[in-house]
Specification:
Helices cover 62% and strands 6% of the residues. The protein is mainly alpha-helical and 238 residues long. Strand 3 and strand 4 form a beta hairpin. It is elongated, with a radius of gyration of 27 Å. It binds zinc ion (ZN).
């Protein structure tokens, strides 16, 4: 096949090839679009648009094995392309390779953890549970992830889901209990946050402001009527 067949100018730039590829794909001409991708990748083997479009063309042409290889490379080079992850997972599922799909997701999950990409991590967990909602390990890992972030409600919910599937698992029970204790501990500590009136020194407690989950930044002192304006994040813990 002649890769220069779509234009007279042999010195097209990669972005021009990418644009041509885009238009071909819109017309459903995936084989020709694929050639554009190949041309770009010869010049720039890691070009993210070309890699992504190449994989999409292969998926459209139902060449899933090849698409998966391209997706693997794409994700290796550009781990943040999480739509690519979702597409590769779909390809693997279509081929009945769910276990590999799960491995693929965990591989990215570890990259995102190392980079602290919380949105992507959450996306990985939802993807894992989409592949198999009964995978207790995924619920358990999700629980541990949220527990580490001190998001205890989400952690407990995850452990609960793991325990629904595997009710006698002692490790899940132990971690659930620990998250529950930590949650109660955190709530107790929150109640101990106290501020003092800047005029008379009286202490405020959350009970003075029952409608507020946290102490507000403006507080009228019940004893002297002074309007206190506290700097944001001013907190004093007993
Ligand atoms: Zn006062």
């Amino acid at each position: 096949m002649n890769i220069f067949g779509h234009g007279k100018n042999k010195k097209k730039t990669t972005s021009e090839w990418n644009i041509e590829c885009y238009h071909l794909m819109r017309k459903g001409r995936y084989e020709q679009a694929l050639e554009c991708c190949e041309t770009v990748l010869e010049l720039e083997p890691k070009d993210v648009s070309a890699l992504d479009r190449k994989a999409k063309c292969l998926e459209k042409l139902n060449l899933l094995e090849e698409a998966i290889k391209v997706r693997d490379f794409e994700l290796e080079e550009h781990p943040n392309m999480f739509p690519a992850l979702s597409n590769e997972v779909n390809d693997l599922i279509k081929l009945g390779r769910a276990e590999e799909a799960i491995e693929r997701i965990y591989k990215n999950l570890h990259v995102y953890e190392a980079r602290g990409k919380s949105n992507y991590i959450e996306f990985c967990f939802s993807l894992l549970l989409q592949v198999n909602p009964k995978r207790t390990q995924a619920w358990y890992d999700r629980g541990n992830y949220y527990a580490k972030l001190k998001r205890f409600d989400k952690a407990i919910e995850s452990y609960d889901n793991a325990l629904k599937i595997d009710p006698t698992n002692e490790i899940y029970k132990k971690n659930r209990l620990r998250a529950l204790n930590q949650k109660e501990e955190a709530e107790k500590r929150k109640k101990m946050v106290v501020r003092y009136c800047q005029q008379c020194g009286k202490s405020f407690s959350p009970e003075d402001y029952p409608d507020c989950p946290n102490l507000p930044d403006f507080m009228v002192c019940p004893r002297c009527g002074w309007q206190n304006k506290f700097p944001i994040n001013y907190k004093k813990i007993l």
